[in-house]
Amino acid sequence: MTSEYSTTSGMGEPHEYIGEEGDKTTESPPISDKEGEAQGIPCAKEPEPDGLDFIDPVEINDGSGADCELHVYESRYDTRGENVVLRVGVKHEFEAPKDRSHAAALVLTRFYSEDKELYSTRLEVRSPYLRKALREVIKSYPGIDFDPANNVWIHEDDASCLFHYREELKVYAESSGDEEMRRHLHMLLQYVKRRFHEEIKRYDATVAKRQASAGSEFKYLWMAYKPGDLLYQKSGEIDTLATLESLTFEEGDLFDDEDEYRGIPRWEMRVKRVQRNGTHLGYVYDKIILKKYEGFAAFSTLDIFPLHFHSESQQIKTRLLARGKKYMSLADIHHCQYNGTAKLSQLINRPTTVKDELIRTRVRQRIMVDFEEFYQNAKGPQPDFQTPGDILGSTSSDIRLEDTDFLICHHEVTGYTLITKRWGFFDVELVHPVNFNEEAFQNLVLEEDKKQLISSLILSRNLEVFSSDDFIEGKGKGVIILLHGPPGVGKTFTAEAMADHARRPLLTANSGQFVGPPPYVESILSRLLHLAERWQALLLLDEADVFMQARNLSDLERNGLVSMLLRILEYFEGTLFLTTNRVGTIDSAFMSRIHLALSYSPLTKEAKQHLWDVWIARACGGERPAWAADKLLKALASFDVSGRDIKNIALLAQAVAKSGQRGMAADDIWKGVTAMTQFQEDFKKSVPDEGLGRNIDGKELTVNQTPSISWAAKAMNHWWYRS
Prior knowledge:
Elements: E1 15-18, E2 24-27, H1 33-38, E3 67-77, E4 83-87, E5 104-112, E6 118-125, H2 128-137, E7 152-155, H3 160-164, H4 166-175, H5 179-195, H6 197-208, E8 215-217, E9 230-235, E10 238-250, E11 266-276, E12 281-291, E13 296-298, E14 304-306, H7 313-329, E15 334-345, E16 358-369, H8 371-377, E17 391-393, H9 403-407, E18 412-417, E19 423-427, E20 431-433, H10 439-442, H11 448-459, E21 479-484, H12 491-502, E22 506-510, H13 518-535, E23 538-542, H14 545-548, H15 556-570, E24 575-580, E25 596-599, H16 605-619, H17 630-637, H18 643-659, H19 666-686, H20 709-716, H21 719-722
Parallel strand pairs: 3-5, 21-24, 21-25, 22-23, 23-24
Antiparallel strand pairs: 1-2, 3-4, 5-6, 6-7, 8-13, 9-10, 9-14, 10-11, 11-12, 12-17, 15-16, 15-19, 15-20, 16-18, 18-19
């Protein structure tokens, strides 16, 4: 019985050859050594280890690659040192190089060195059937061009593509309704079976038949790492996926450019992920190294391995698909809440991608996600799209991703912490929408008409559409609100509550951040104003006295700061809150820049009673406890403490109760009051009654008189406390 497929040498009578499966093929007799040497041309001798032999041809037509046969050539050096290419089994080369085996479906060429050692092979696929099948099944593979207009060349280093796709090609052949397609594919698969005979047996034994504990020896890893497959890698505690682009073995000689791997055999993987660089989304590439190990290793023990060998591969795909879609949804500017570990820059207001300048930090605050602002100002390397084809799009609206692209999206977004003012990288899965405190504005202790006034001013100013109120283009588009009054009466809280009420971010700064020469101070302030405009955030400049104090002839440096702020505010297009407790010292030039000025008086007893009620309830989980009766609240309101003091005392009482693993009690509040009044009494004794500025009426502000600690101690025994 002869094989269904055959090739011919073109010379001599064929003889039977028994294949690996016991099937007979026909093979031309080898040319004798003497015959070849007489003409100075090397000849083929014994069949090569790839198991390829000649089989009788099956003629289809005269077109290129139409004959279902494989021709084998050898490129050798003759006795004169000249390179010649000879078809195996043929004495002479009668065809011009471009016409060699024009009609053969497959042409295999073996390349030998001058020392007569085989060092490479090349398979040329000429069959239009096989080219079509390879193009539709494999689609793309590193190092191989599947252009339908050209033949497919598969070099020795790329022959693994036939090993990786042998099962898919088999399925394609079985499902094809074209008889000639099936014949050509069966011949190709016969070649693959003989070419990779030992590898297939090893793969079946170590991988295919032991999925739960599949693994490999180091040198055979290529069999399981198929270009195009998803690779799983753990980055710290975070699951990540990447698409394998190519796999290359490096011997690891002593002259490697990379000192870390000098002399170490290794597999180098080129993988791709989807990432933003600020303006575009696209594929970025990375190199991952697997160093040599001894013996057999399960894939799950390696640093990176194909996802389908993971015991929870489906759960990982489901979760990372959702994460990728979330990453895409955060493409523009977003105000978010974050609770978890992030990699933050060590420098305030300075983004960086340099690993040594990033610190893993616990973050529990609101952040601004902004890729473009981060990468425009970041120090260090940035995501690089190597070719225009790697760019997927510029905006979320013009990008349509496949599920495989969502799976390999980067696991971090870039952003800015609004409280600690640090740029950094944030885990996508820990970024959540902001839960705005709707009650904050309601609990603000401020006259209702003032609350209505400030609310209307901010909510009606849509930064996208309102026009300038100045004759000069670009001037007068901002809103500046001055809040003045003694400490602890709610100035800062007004800005915080208003930000949540308007559902906008809040950027804060105080005079302590502006220490340095004027150019440095101006750059920091300009940067904050820019971010406030970009993010449509409310900007709070707390304790702004250093920028607002009236200019005089004796302090030129301070005069420069005041003039700088006045100049910058002319072209500011956002909303700015300025707070001060020294309104009487403000430079008169600010009066024309301020759109609204609100005066805050010392808290009345009714206001303090309300604040005690609110903060005790918050410290107790949201509801006022039974012991916090009106009598107790009225007693607490009689103490001359600020709103900030009330908040601190309530939080202190909460901490004391938690440390004792019990609910908060009235005694905890009184302990806080006692400590606070003791501090105020000590402060009053050590600090003279100095002027603290003037209020809106021009009256001098002084240190307030407070109840003594002995009075507070007596109050703890009073009947309304015990009741």
